[in-house]
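Final report, section 2: Outcomes. Of the targets proposed, TetR/AcrR family transcriptional regulator is the one most frequently requested by collaborating groups, and we therefore present its record in full.
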Amino acid sequence: MTDLHNDDNLLDEEALNRLPNGAKLSWGIVKQSRRGPKGELSIAKIVEAAIELADRDGLAAVSMNRVASSLGFTTMSLYRYVTSKEELLLLMQDAVCDRNIPPERTDGNWREDMRGYVRACIEVFEQHPWYGDIPISGIPIAPNTLRYIDWVMRSMRDFPINDFEKMSFLLLISSYARSCGIIHRDMMRAIEAGASAESFSGMSFGPALRQLVTPERYPDLYPVIASGVYTGEREQDNPIGNDFDFGLERILDGIAVYLESKGKIG
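The predicted structure is given below as tokens.
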């Protein structure tokens, strides 16, 4: 977590006080409690224990009581550091986004930067399946998640577009990353629960769907199901490769076309 206490003279306290307490904790604006048995607890230890619990048992298993028990402390001991579960969830989200951002590229390849961002986001969902179970409650305001956004802004530094357009592109690729991340996560959960990759893709349902989906009722879907493509029965013949990569490349193509219309070759 960032510590801003050495720069107190630069901070607008009134503005900072409008932040949720969880965000202030993530930035190090709120000084950690020194109460308790020899300072054995800390925000970092609490967050680490909560993440371990969520990774193992899911987000529903995370409670102040269970986190405290896993650390060998009382629930009231935790409240001296983190005052609510909402604060803890924000800190957990930001903690798992504490990752190395690649160095700035020298070749101007903004597409590769955006690919890297999307892959990194998807990895968070895969490595911490509970991440996607936390509802979006507002814009990112914690330091590590903002470093991810800065990564995308860096890739668009020389784009001939305004900040509103840059934010729209950020939302576009972030939404795609979240969607893909949750699908990947759900596939992993299904397989861990005993399903096969084939059953997740619906391959075993192909013969039944070819009987139930008639050309009269589903005139445009029927040919796709009849061909076996809908249920993944012909993946070996897929000329576009990975579906997720294909979708991302089309998004990047769209950004490139938009930039060309603004006078920049994408």
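DSSP finds 13 helices and no strands in the chain.
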